[in-house]
Every structure is written in C-alpha cells, then in structure tokens.
Amino acid sequence: MPKSENSVAKPLKVVAVNGSAYQPSRTRVLVEALLAELSQSLVVEAQVVDLAEIARPLGAALSREELPADIEAQLVAIESADLLIAAAPVYRGSFPGHFKHLFDLVGMNALIDKPVLLAATGGSDRHALVLEHQFRPLFGFLQALSLPIGVYASTADFNGYEVGSPALQERIRLAAERAAPLFADAARQPLRRVA
C-alpha cells in the first residue's frame, strides 16, 4: 500500500559496526557518511558499535558468556538491527581479527536474511576486492543478505579524516540509494525504483 502524505515513517534501526581499533578512524568517517546518506531518504535510528571502545574486553572473551554486559548489549543490537553496516579497515588483505571475533560471538542464526551493507577502508586500491573475497564469504556463511553494492575507500579518497573524493561520495550515494527500496516503511517520501 502506498504511503500517504500524512503517514509517519517507521524508524529503521541501523547498527553500524566500525571494525577499526583506532580513533580517529577513516573507517568511522566512512560509516558516518553512509549513515548520513541513508538518512537522506530513510528515517534512521542509528547506533555505532566501535571496536576501538570494546576491543580489549572483547578479545579476552572466549565465549559469549564471558562478555561484559555492555558488549553483550551491543551484540544484541547487532542481532536485532533492521540493517547492519559492517565496516572495517583492511590489514594484510583482510579485516582485523577482532572484527571477525565479534561476529564469531553473534548468534549462529541471528543474521539470517538480515540486510548487510559492506564497507572497508585500506591504504591503497590493491585491497579493493576485500569486500568480495573476505566480507561476502563471512556474511554469506552467516546467511545474511549482503547488499549488492558495497563501498571500498582508500587513503587517497580522504582529506585527513573527511571524505574528500567525489568518486567515493558517489559510491556512498549509490550504495544508500540501492539499499533504500528494501525499507519502504522507513522512507521519508515514496521511493522511486532504481533502474
């Protein structure tokens, strides 16, 4: 049923995992840019899980039962999100071990059919295929629905800790535009179909 002009959009619960263990972080900048772009067409209720804030206690836990309550709450947020943004820096051709460990502790069936927007940052374009070779297999195993357009950004795409490249801004826009039709209930206005 089409949305009337007077209807209020249901907020989309978006949880973004920033897999960088450092602050400041270009990965965090990319996450914020994706959230801002999604907010242009969708009513978004966003939460960011920052690995930089939880890496040490997370790494010390061998099982979910050993996690502190605040990290358990963040896992629950990941599991209950309407849309997950999974973003991480690339080191030696893959995402950081703590990023993988976080998803090792997510419930085995918790991400089934959950839309996931993939994003990564790296020092150069030689890491650009990391989304296809590392991220998609991980989220495929978890039976999540990896969105078709992910966003990879190299150091050259940033001016310090700001998005500086028009090409990166366009990739961010396109990823958000292609994700938005999946969440018509959260649309700020009726969405047009992307060709």
UniProtKB/TrEMBL annotation:
Gene3D superfamilies: 3.40.50.360
InterPro entries: Flavoprotein-like_sf (IPR029039), FMN_Rdtase-like_dom (IPR005025), FMN_Rdtase_MsuE-like (IPR019912), NAD(P)H-dep_FMN_reductase (IPR051814)
Residue ranges annotated for the NADPH-dependent FMN reductase-like domain, each copy included: 13-154
Key words, A-Z: Flavoprotein, FMN, Oxidoreductase
Top-rank lineage group of the source organism: Bacteria
Molecular function, one GO term: oxidoreductase activity
Pfam families per record: FMN_red
Entry's family note: Belongs to the SsuE family.
Protein name: MsuE subfamily FMN reductase
